Amino acid sequence: MNQLIGGVFALIGIYKCVPLVHGSQGCANYVKHIIVEHFKEPIDIATTGFHESSAIYGGVENIIKAIENIEISKNPELIGICTTGLSEIIGENIKSDVKSNYNNKNIIAINTPSYNGSHIDGYNNAMYSIISGILEKENEIEIKKENKNNKNNKINLIHGVVNPGDVRELQYIFDNLGIEYNLLNDIKSMDRPLRLPKEEYPKCDTTIDNIKNSIYSKATVSFGMEGVDGASYLEKYGVISCNLKYPIGIENTDNFIINLLKIAGKNDISDISNISEKLLDDRGYALDAMANTNDKLKNKKVAIYGAPDQVIGFVDLANEIGLNVVAVLSNTKTNYFAKTMQKLNQNIEVISGDLYDFEKSLKDKNVDFIIGDYRSKYVANSLNIPSLKVGFPVIDVYGHPKKTMLGYNGALNLINEMANL
Fold this sequence. Notes:
Blueprint: H1 3-11, E1 17-22, H2 25-39, E2 46-47, H3 52-57, H4 60-74, E3 78-83, H5 85-89, H6 94-101, E4 107-110, H7 119-135, H8 138-145, E5 155-157, H9 164-177, E6 181-183, H10 208-212, E7 219-223, H11 228-233, E8 240-244, H12 250-264, H13 277-292, H14 294-297, E9 301-306, H15 308-321, E10 324-330, H16 337-344, E11 349-351, H17 355-362, E12 369-372, H18 376-383, E13 387-389, H19 407-419
Parallel strand pairs: 1-2, 1-3, 3-4, 5-6, 5-7, 7-8, 9-10, 9-12, 10-11, 12-13
Helix pairs in contact: 1-2, 1-7, 13-19, 15-16, 17-18
């Protein structure tokens, strides 16, 4: 799971945006395969079609030709060019090339080298490049600087590498709190009904204007490292960056809601009991599920694998349920994951390595089940135990993108699914 996947993931969450992979046809096909298998939806990804000569003499001419073809055939509002290992290793500076040739067009360059980092790094880099690239166009930047007093009460939201069901749950929470929001990325574009007339571009709630208007919002909410750099960039326009834990589990959702209310300037709420009846009911249903499954789940041994900030959320939920988390593995290197795990539970083994090391470590731990993306099934099958599929990618569970793991409804779903394994 390389940076390129995360870069494309971010781009397809913007209306009328075409991702352009600056590399070989195989690089684009790999990303397309993973995304289509997960969402079960078609996707358009363009490529500059690197060949041997491009690797020697550079691929700028390929970019120019590809953009010309995309503009004629698709008429997009945004083109996002993602690099690959090949274009990076030969030292091409596509950001400079784009600035020189397309400074007055909505064409942005994103560095997503395949040999470094993961899809989580790629998503974070992409959100930074998308936001900064659009706002720093010459004829936009001066206009924006003159309108610092034109603030509104909206909160920008960067949802991270989650599913359409998760985005709907986040929107549901905002709506029930009566807080206006501005989505800077919307992966609901990958969950569309099959109906006529066929859409040339799948609809979603993020457009170029959403990103341009992001500087007028009060704050930007992001989760962990998934989009935090884009949120931090907006601070130069006076937009507060509020980086939170993913609202996975009861306490994390409580804190998420309380932070939203504080940012929005609502009544000072330190007690969650003052929120809307709908949200209180959702919270109550999740607590009820926790009580109902206590005899089944309490003290069960579990191992968790996935994106670092999502794993942290799952460990929090596991602690609330009474599960015994024995080992965790992050698919992305961070400087905080291991320290955070030790604060949550000193008995958790933080595995450094890959799924082979994960499996090797679990062989003598008598684990009851595993939580992770679809690749966790290979470890689970080897150990003859069940696995709960969460996050991205999950290519072998139909309907998975419609589910939510976030909010009180996400906690309800996860608790029941764990109990039914």
